[in-house]
UniProtKB/TrEMBL annotation:
Stored SUPFAM superfamilies: TPR-like (SSF48452)
All residue ranges annotated as the Putative zinc-finger domain in the record: 7-36
Amino-acid biosynthesis as UniProt keyword: no
Protein name, as recorded: CHAT domain-containing protein
Record key words, sorted: Membrane, Transmembrane, Transmembrane helix
Domain CHAT: 829-986
This protein's record includes keyword Transmembrane: yes
């Protein structure tokens, strides 16, 4: 039988005890282990219930069964706070820093990362499950009374450590407390950042791989910041080593562990650091095996059967098939060719019980070696690198005149460069397609894709590469598939399909680790490029840094340092950028166009002797092919020269814009997109706008905002904003046409995602009388909330003229109550559409609401409501709409798919989806879901940058539609409805994130 106080636990938990009895029960709770255990169970059930509601939505509970005041529903942290205040026992007068023995009495730890609280950072061996890579079980506990006492006395550092290390990690609670410490400026900033990194690292262990990567990215960023503040921070070095290891970057992890070993005084911590470093040093075994295989392949080419035994040892290394082809082509007799049959059969077996290589070998053995032998000998000299560059083309001509197609094909692959219209490229494609070996069919598709890429036909290149990937996967051609995935990552990245680019690069990296050290380094650079385009500076530096540590020649070092210079530019670390471009130049190789672009940015504030020559050499080394490429070269020249020779720089930029505009229009008319021309045009306008601002000619600068979009900038009620490395500009005209300006030639931070208070008060007041403000935000600034106050009507404007739907009866398409893929674990959104009598309703719900069906129905609609979940991809930040899965599993409506469609009825599109207005990091175009709909033909889009409450969305957006039908402009309708909701309740702050795009 329970004692009377224990019987009061349910009433206490529900907050139903009178104050005096609650205080009495609190004193009992402090000493009653049974009640502490039972209250913990209550809390765990409550947490489970909240997770259920988050995933599946609310459930109906009878009124008489509802507790009146479940004060602990906010979670364990709030209970601890309340208990600490209520009890007032056990901690009065203690110093905040005194460690609680009950928390740190365990003999093993459940968190591999380290925290900065000294009591928690005493060495304890890793739990057994932790050593095996599984989820650790509790080896210590967090007594409720102790946790409440820590909260009561404000010992947040120890409380964070307890949530992370005293029992199974609870990273969510730790993150919340650390955010509070940052806000209140408690603790050493480097310690707080290191512990925050540890919390994100712990969180990654509980996530699926895609989302775990997101947590590791954030952990890496935080730990990098900690080490910037304190380069010798021991725990940050330890934790960053773990993050690097889990990201697959062992060489960087080893560097951090070496830093720990050098500083650590505790022998146990030092021993574990050394053990981790030694384990990671196995990466050198991978390198050594690749080097041995590479050497065996070279010997096979040089010596044939005499080197066969060593080559056979590495038949499982994917590049051995490549070297096999060279070896066969280099043999000068039938007997030498047939001697390689064991390797051919072994390689065939690796590709899945085929006879392709054995058949090829026998075919070559039957050739007339009285004619073939001299050609084979010459081919062997080329393959072994002993043919002078000047002798390669004449030798290739000799091969082309022969009938030894395999030798000719091999020489064509080795011959570089092959221009897009070269007869050599065409011959390679022809021979590859006619060859029965799928290896060469894949090569032909890669060559065709490369020819398209050189002409800026990236969509065509992507199509050929997807076909190549399908073929090489089907035929188990690992080496070729790795190369294809690298090509796909490059082309997808140039198309700014960053999520796809990262996926291809990551898949390629996994394949390359089957023994392809050189390809592994190549794919790390591909991942670094994706991170750079996504403006993820920390992750980009990590990938490029690992690739640099893997070694390589001057060309690799130059390319990596050019990319690191761009990353430093994004971080506004221009001294670092200057150093990186200097290291690129120190290789002695000319810069690429990519490097010249970085130097043009750096030289504005950190010009050095020799920069002019470096730019000239760099641009001369990569000849342009298309009109768009010629325009891009001019834009780089003009950007670099603008301050040193203003007249010439200005003329080059104007010419570049005109040429790029023509090239982009011609490509669009032919049904494709000239992305290089887009870059040239965008960067040209950027340079001219800021040059006008630098000279104080703000009226011309503002006029260029409209010129770029294809219309005359309005004479009043307009605001333009742009940024470019170290400078930013806001310029506009107020209600009376007065010029407004705020130019910042040097800055230390980029414009924030939440633009509240970015526009100075005097500019806001000048715009306030406007009925509506046109905001001309250049990429990547469009789609950010808070730019103007909530009581003002404004819109992001991207179109020259207003579009109107056709006169007559329209169709209103509604997509709602989507049945998502089961693994998505998402609840369908409810939505009530406002339909007028002159509209026909078309509804897509349940499993019918697939991306293909939605894309098929939207061109018929004059009004579109998309009530579904908006999602931000876990990798490079891009937003998509989640829909029902197709038969192939695809369930994402992406910006890329929307831009390809045509909307002839100019619909108004309502995106009732969380964060659907989020923009991309693209600098050459206005990137976002709303802009994709505008590009497809929508007359306007309403979307949000914030999470939208399901129950409120259809009411809010329905009321906006009613206001439009009553004659209000779109921006005014959204403003007026927003004001009503904010006046009703401050909890409706999400309406501040609803933006208008027209």
């Amino acid at each position: 039988m329970m004692s009377k106080p224990c019987d009061q636990l349910p009433l206490f938990a529900d907050g139903d005890l009178p104050l005096a009895e609650s205080q009495a029960f609190g004193r009992h709770l402090a000493d009653c282990a049974h009640c502490q255990t039972e209250l913990t169970r209550h809390l765990q059930l409550d947490q489970m219930g909240r997770r259920y509601l988050e995933r599946h939505g609310p459930i109906t509970i009878p009124w008489h069964a509802m507790p009146r005041n479940r004060w602990f529903a906010a979670g364990a942290a709030l209970v601890a706070v309340a208990l600490g205040v209520l009890l007032g026992v056990g901690g009065v007068g203690r110093r905040v820093s005194s460690p609680e023995p009950a928390l740190w009495a365990g003999t093993s730890r459940t968190l591999e990362a380290r925290v900065t609280y000294p009591g928690a950072d005493q060495y304890r061996r890793p739990a057994q499950a932790l050593m095996g890579g599984g989820t650790p079980s509790a080896t210590a506990s967090r007594p409720l009374t102790v946790m409440s006492e820590l909260e009561r006395r404000g010992d947040l550092s120890q409380l964070v450590a307890a949530y992370l290390t005293a029992g199974p990690p609870e990273p969510k609670n730790a993150k919340d407390l650390l955010a509070r410490m940052q806000a209140e400026r408690q603790g050493d900033p480097a310690d707080v950042l290191s512990d925050m990194g540890a919390a994100y690292y712990a969180s990654a262990k509980t996530q699926d791989p895609a989302w775990a990567l997101r947590e590791l990215r954030e952990a890496l960023r935080l730990l990098h910041q900690a080490l910037v503040l304190k380069p010798t921070h021991l725990q940050a070095h330890w934790n960053r080593a773990l993050v690097y290891r889990d990201l697959g970057l062992p060489l960087l992890a080893i560097q951090d562990l070496e830093a720990v070993e050098a500083q650590e005084t505790n022998p146990a911590w030092r021993t574990e650091a050394r053990e981790k470093r030694v384990k990671l040093a196995d990466v050198t075994t991978r390198q050594q095996r690749w080097e041995a295989a590479n050497s065996a392949g070279a010997e096979l080419v040089a010596r044939g059967a005499q080197a066969l035994d060593e080559a056979m040892r590495y038949a499982d290394v994917p590049m051995m098939r490549r070297d096999f082809y060279h070896a066969v082509r280099s043999r000068t007799s039938r007997e030498d060719v047939l001697a390689l049959l064991p390797l051919a059969e072994a390689l065939d077996s690796k590709a899945g019980q085929q006879t392709v290589l054995a058949d090829y070998l026998r075919s070559v053995a039957n050739r007339d070696f009285s004619r073939r032998a001299p050609l084979a000998e010459a081919y062997g000299r080329w393959a072994m690198g002993t043919v002078e560059p000047s002798g390669k083309e004449p030798l290739l001509r000799t091969f082309l005149a022969s009938n030894e197609d395999d030798i000719t094909l091999g020489a064509l692959v080795m011959f570089s460069p092959r221009g897009p219209d070269s007869e050599y490229a065409e011959k390679l494609i022809t021979l590859g397609n006619s060859n029965p070996d799928p290896w060469f069919k894949v090569l032909a598709l890669q060559e065709r894709a490369d020819r398209s890429r050189q002409k800026d036909r990236y969509e065509l290149a992507l199509s050929d590469l997807r076909q190549a990937l399908e073929l090489c996967t089907q035929e188990h051609l690992v080496y070729r598939c790795t190369e294809v995935r690298n090509d796909l990552a490059y082309v997808s990245g140039w198309l700014f399909q960053l999520q796809e680019a990262e996926r291809f690069a990551r898949e390629g990296l996994t394949q390359s680790r089957l023994g392809q050290w050189e390809q592994e380094r190549m794919l790390l650079q591909a991942l670094g490029s994706v991170a750079r385009m996504a403006a993820d500076v920390t992750l980009g530096r990590a990938y490029f840094g690992e690739a640099l540590l893997m070694g390589g020649g001057k060309e690799l070092a130059r390319n990596i340092h050019e990319n690191l210079a761009h990353l430093a530019i994004k971080a506004l670390e221009l001294d670092v950028a200057r150093d990186e471009i200097n290291q690129a130049l120190a290789t002695g190789l000319p810069l690429t166009q990519h490097g010249v672009a970085a130097l043009a940015d750096i030289a504005r504030t950190r010009r050095a002797a020799g920069d002019v020559e470096a730019v000239q050499q760099g641009l001369a080394s990569d000849a342009p092919v298309t009109e768009g490429q010629h325009a891009f070269v001019k834009s780089l020249q003009g950007r670099f020269l603008l301050e040193a020779d203003p007249a010439q720089g200005h003329a080059l930029l104007v010419d570049a814009i005109e040429q790029a505009t023509r090239a982009a229009a011609a490509a669009s008319g032919a049904g494709w997109t000239d992305i290089t021309a887009q870059h040239a045009r965008a960067y040209g306008f950027t340079s001219l706008i800021f040059d006008n601002a630098r000279r104080g000619d703000f009226a011309t600068a503002l006029a260029r905002f409209g010129n770029e979009l294809g219309f005359d900038t309005p004479g009043n009620c307009v605001l333009g904003l742009t940024e470019d490395t170290e400078r930013q500009l806001l310029v506009g005209r107020g209600a009376d046409g007065q010029l407004l300006k705020r130019y910042m030639p040097t800055r230390t931070k980029r414009m924030p995602v939440d633009m509240t208070d970015v526009v100075p008060p005097d500019m806001v007041e000048a715009l306030r009388p406007c009925a509506s403000v046109d905001v001309l935000a250049r990429p990547p600034l469009q789609g950010r909330s808070g730019l103007l106050p909530a009581d003002m009507a404004w819109r992001y404007r991207a179109l020259a003229v207003a579009r109107q739907p056709p006169v007559g009866r329209g169709t209103h398409l509604v997509v709602n109550e989507v049945r998502y893929a089961e693994q998505r674990n998402e609840t369908p959104l409810r939505w009530t559409a406002r339909i007028t009598p002159d509209e026909d309703l078309m509804t897509l719900t349940d499993l019918a609401a697939t991306p293909s069906r939605v894309l098929a129905e939207m061109p018929k609609a004059s009004e579109v409501d998309l009530a579904t979940h908006g999602k931000v991809a876990p990798g490079p930040k891009s937003t998509y709409l989640l829909l029902a899965p197709e038969t192939n599993g695809s369930d994402m409506l992406t910006e890329e798919l929307i831009r390809k469609m045509k909307l002839p009825k100019a619909p108004l599109v309502i995106l009732a989806a969380c964060e659907a207005a989020r923009g991309t990091t693209a600098l050459h175009e206005l990137g976002s879901l709303p802009n994709a709909f505008l590009a497809a033909g929508a007359r306007g889009v309403v979307a949000a940058t914030l999470p939208i409450p399901d129950e409120d969305s259809s009411v809010f957006f329905g009321n906006v539609r009613d206001r439009l039908r009553a004659g209000s402009p779109l921006g005014t309708a959204v403003r007026d409805e927003r004001q009503q909701w904010l006046q009703r309740s401050a909890s409706h702050s999400w309406v501040n994130g609803v933006l208008v795009f027209e």
